[in-house]
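I'll show a typical protein example:
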Amino acid sequence: MTAQRILVTCDLPGDRLATLKKDPRFAVTVLDDAGRRDIPGAVSGLDPHGIVALLSDTLDARVLGSAPALKVVSNYAVGYNNIDTAFAKEQGIAVTNTPDVLTDATADIAFLLILAVSRRGWEAENFMRAGKFGGWLPDLFLGIGLQGKRLGILGYGRIGSAVARRGRAFGMRIAYHARNRLPHAREAAEALEYLPLDRLIAESDVLSLHMPYTPAARHLIGAAALATMKPTAILINTARGPLVDEAALLVALRERRIFGAGFDVYEHEPKVDPALLTLPNVSVLPHIGSATIETRAAMAALAIDDCVAVLTGAEPRNRVV
């Protein structure tokens, strides 16, 4: 029996890729850095039966259509807006993702950013590293306390819920907005306040984004939304970069119309506006929301297992198309 071809667009952490390579049912190709620079060429050249892809890999209709043997794209991420799912569905190509396993790791990073911005951690560390610390002062790097403040969660899925749990541990009041409102019993059990979108943006002390990206949601947080936020408000984005109009946000940050912002994702990723790297009231991270050893290995296992499931006629755990 001829081995089915699997293209893995990047070397992955953990042991699961090594076991896949030893499986005689599959011929596995893992792209190196040079290969990653031409993923469309790699896909059309190999004509794989399965692809294990990264969120940064654009798999549009042209790329997917260049592989007539393709049966499954397994995305090494929760999001999958890098894949033309409408075309995949039309062609009978399964698409899977890796939810659940990265929930806590990403929630931790969101709260790391909340703390870094509210307590001016990045600014204070740079001050310290530059040798400027001359001793304790009453007004040195005064930040904003979180106790009693409203944490607004925009998008109340797994990660949003996990961030809310962390916020409650810090004594914050939790409000949320989601496409589908939760049952009243759950709101009561989790001490949640549901707010319309405009009120959530205007009334939150910390607004943390946890919704998926769709074209309709592009620049959801733009100039108009920013104008309604409190001057003491903090914006956190660990979801998707294009949810925020970074140009409008930079104006608000420079003019101190909001207190600060924290990012793990960017509008034009991997390109980052240089101003974000220099403003003192911004904390920036290089898209490390899921970057723990345990989480990244679990993501690799889940992505590969679902790819193998489709290719062997089984049902994948996390099929989105």
About this structure: Residues 293-311 form the longest helix (19 residues). The chain has a mean pLDDT of 97. The two ends are 28 Å apart (CA to CA).
